[in-house]
């Protein structure tokens, strides 16, 4: 049996397993929007952990990250550091979002922001901005899936058909299972990803280097590719602002939706502290493979394929099949979450919000499932017309979604935030991202990421316009800020009571 056939069989078995997990973990007999989109707010800490880290790491983790390290070296460090800092945003927004979602039934960002600012227009704009920037990220994931099938079969499965296979498998289990199917498949995929990337990195390093000590690799990189181990001073502005843009990961709609889904806000605190360990630990073997590729396979036209090419050259077909199944897991775990989030945004924030007649859950689910098919098809078509690196597309998408953050932080923490300020900042930030990405790439001679330019314009106008417009309604402030203050008081009192009980126990003993 030829090597590529063995690899394809392993990947096919994995696809069947994922479909089975999606079907058997669905909420059987439940047809509510809350069940389909946020899992009935019943996801436990174990599953919430892995669905978060698996959603965080998409095809860029296996393919885009390796490609970026291969071509640019440690310029990719901005993304790696975001894996440490970005989850800490959960401390800032995760807990209050959970409490507000539980009390008022919110399921999307537009739900929360539209209610706080008492604006159907803001809810609509947030939804449109989210969908616009979700599609490029989806496009990047489908590109990743196409590369995986094409590279491991030596081109026998064309890039287009690889993209189609990924499309069919993912929409299959999302349509059948909803959020719980997504969360449980993410859990399987998250465990697979971390185990298999370490196996791949160790195997390739041992095979090529003769030892797992990669100091020789770094010495060779320094001698032959020294530019890839340094960040030129002129690159620091875009480096640091790309890092800032990647804060958008924690408020990216698929990630944000997980704040609503957990059964207890304590899970979010645990997630904020522990997820960076997984996220940063993942990139160590990816870096080893990318640097070995730069030494032994220089000049690739498609850098995102360095991992599968190194696998097929230096490992067995079985190993290649297993690791590329892990790469496919990374791709699927983000694609399913993005499609699911896009469906919830369109159904809840656009269709249901703008409908003149009440929308039943049954009708909403029909619209939502149809949306999944259509949006995935759009991303599939776009994937055939882009030659950009997966990481570049992903960074642009995250920078765009970052524009929701000022209005969100205002709704949670700033009582002076107004409808006019939020809307002005959001629209201006969105325009600035597009303008600095495609038209005016170096405003005032400064090379910053488009997401950073957008955020700068956004925050500035949000604050100025909010201060110049009338204060929000006091009842609305009480509904949000007053409720969160009472939650914090109750929490502090419970903690104090628990502390007193422990002190009495110590004294009594």
From TrEMBL:
<comment type="similarity">
    <text>Belongs to the sodium:solute symporter (SSF) (TC 2.A.21) family.</text>
</comment>
<dbReference type="InterPro" id="IPR018212">
    <property type="entry name" value="Na/solute_symporter_CS"/>
</dbReference>
<keyword id="KW-0812">Transmembrane</keyword>
<feature type="transmembrane region" description="Helical">
    <location>
        <begin position="314"/>
        <end position="332"/>
    </location>
</feature>
<dbReference type="GO" id="GO:0046942">
    <property type="term" value="P:carboxylic acid transport"/>
</dbReference>
<dbReference type="Pfam" id="PF00474">
    <property type="entry name" value="SSF"/>
</dbReference>
<dbReference type="InterPro" id="IPR038377">
    <property type="entry name" value="Na/Glc_symporter_sf"/>
</dbReference>
<dbReference type="InterPro" id="IPR050277">
    <property type="entry name" value="Sodium:Solute_Symporter"/>
</dbReference>
<keyword id="KW-1003">Cell membrane</keyword>
<feature type="transmembrane region" description="Helical">
    <location>
        <begin position="364"/>
        <end position="383"/>
    </location>
</feature>
<feature type="transmembrane region" description="Helical">
    <location>
        <begin position="389"/>
        <end position="414"/>
    </location>
</feature>
<feature type="transmembrane region" description="Helical">
    <location>
        <begin position="76"/>
        <end position="100"/>
    </location>
</feature>
<feature type="transmembrane region" description="Helical">
    <location>
        <begin position="236"/>
        <end position="256"/>
    </location>
</feature>
<feature type="transmembrane region" description="Helical">
    <location>
        <begin position="159"/>
        <end position="179"/>
    </location>
</feature>
<dbReference type="GO" id="GO:0015293">
    <property type="term" value="F:symporter activity"/>
</dbReference>
<feature type="transmembrane region" description="Helical">
    <location>
        <begin position="191"/>
        <end position="208"/>
    </location>
</feature>
<keyword id="KW-1133">Transmembrane helix</keyword>
<dbReference type="GO" id="GO:0005886">
    <property type="term" value="C:plasma membrane"/>
</dbReference>
<dbReference type="GO" id="GO:0006814">
    <property type="term" value="P:sodium ion transport"/>
</dbReference>
<keyword id="KW-0769">Symport</keyword>
<keyword id="KW-0813">Transport</keyword>
<protein>
    <submittedName>
        <fullName>Sodium:solute symporter family protein</fullName>
    </submittedName>
</protein>
<feature type="transmembrane region" description="Helical">
    <location>
        <begin position="268"/>
        <end position="294"/>
    </location>
</feature>
<feature type="transmembrane region" description="Helical">
    <location>
        <begin position="121"/>
        <end position="139"/>
    </location>
</feature>
<keyword id="KW-0406">Ion transport</keyword>
<feature type="transmembrane region" description="Helical">
    <location>
        <begin position="46"/>
        <end position="70"/>
    </location>
</feature>
<feature type="transmembrane region" description="Helical">
    <location>
        <begin position="6"/>
        <end position="25"/>
    </location>
</feature>
<feature type="transmembrane region" description="Helical">
    <location>
        <begin position="452"/>
        <end position="469"/>
    </location>
</feature>
<feature type="transmembrane region" description="Helical">
    <location>
        <begin position="421"/>
        <end position="440"/>
    </location>
</feature>
<keyword id="KW-0739">Sodium transport</keyword>
<keyword id="KW-0472">Membrane</keyword>
<keyword id="KW-0915">Sodium</keyword>
<dbReference type="InterPro" id="IPR001734">
    <property type="entry name" value="Na/solute_symporter"/>
</dbReference>
């Amino acid at each position: 049996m030829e090597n590529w056939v063995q690899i394809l069989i392993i990947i096919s078995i994995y696809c069947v397993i994922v479909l089975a997990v999606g079907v058997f973990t669905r909420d059987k007999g439940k047809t509510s929007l809350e069940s389909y989109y946020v899992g009935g707010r019943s996801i436990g800490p174990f599953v919430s952990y892995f669905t978060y880290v698996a959603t965080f790491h998409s095809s860029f983790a296996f393919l885009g990250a390796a490609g970026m390290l291969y071509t640019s070296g440690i310029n990719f460090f901005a993304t790696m550091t975001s894996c440490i800092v970005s989850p800490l945003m959960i401390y800032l927004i995760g807990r209050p979002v959970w409490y507000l979602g539980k009390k008022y039934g919110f399921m999307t960002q537009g739900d929360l922001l539209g209610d706080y600012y008492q604006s159907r227009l803001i809810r609509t704009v947030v939804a449109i901005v989210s969908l616009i920037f979700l599609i490029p990220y989806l496009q990047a994931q489908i590109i990743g899936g196409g590369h995986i099938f094409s590279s491991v079969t030596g081109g026998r499965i064309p890039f287009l058909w690889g993209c189609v296979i990924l499309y069919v498998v993912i929409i299959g289990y999302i349509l059948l299972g909803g959020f719980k199917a997504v969360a449980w498949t993410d859990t399987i995929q998250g465990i697979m990803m971390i185990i298999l990337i370490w196996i791949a990195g160790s195997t390739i390093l041992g095979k090529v280097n003769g030892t797992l000590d990669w100091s020789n690799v770094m010495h060779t990189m320094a001698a032959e590719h020294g530019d890839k181990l340094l960040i030129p001073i002129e690159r620091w502005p875009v480096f640091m602002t790309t890092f800032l843009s990647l804060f958008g990961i924690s408020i990216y709609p698929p990630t944000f939706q997980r704040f609503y889904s957990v059964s207890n806000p304590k899970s979010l605190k645990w997630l904020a502290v522990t997820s960076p360990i997984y996220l940063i630990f993942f990139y160590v073997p990816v870096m080893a493979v990318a640097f070995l590729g730069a030494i032994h396979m220089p000049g690739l036209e498609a850098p995102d394929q360095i991992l599968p090419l190194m696998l097929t050259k230096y490992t067995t077909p079985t190993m290649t099949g297993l690791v590329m199944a892990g790469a496919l897991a990374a791709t699927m775990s983000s694609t399913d979450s993005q499609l699911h989030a896009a469906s919830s945004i369109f159904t809840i924030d656009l269709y249901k919000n703008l409908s003149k007649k009440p929308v039943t859950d049954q009708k909403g689910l029909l619209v939502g499932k149809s949306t999944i098919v259509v949006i995935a098809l759009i991303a599939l078509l776009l994937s055939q017309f882009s030659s950009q690196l997966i990481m570049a597309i992903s960074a642009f998408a995250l920078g765009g979604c970052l524009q929701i953050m000022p209005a969100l932080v205002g709704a949670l923490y700033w009582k002076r935030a107004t409808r006019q300020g939020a809307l002005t900042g959001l629209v201006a930030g969105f325009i600035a991202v597009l303008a600095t990405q495609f038209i005016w790439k170096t405003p005032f001679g400064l090379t910053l990421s488009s997401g950073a330019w957008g955020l700068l314009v956004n925050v500035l106008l949000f604050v100025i316009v909010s201060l110049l417009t009338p204060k929000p309604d006091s009842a609305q402030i009480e509904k949000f800020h007053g409720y969160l203050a009472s939650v914090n008081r109750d929490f502090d009192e419970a903690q104090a009571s628990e502390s007193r009980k422990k002190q009495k126990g110590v004294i009594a003993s």
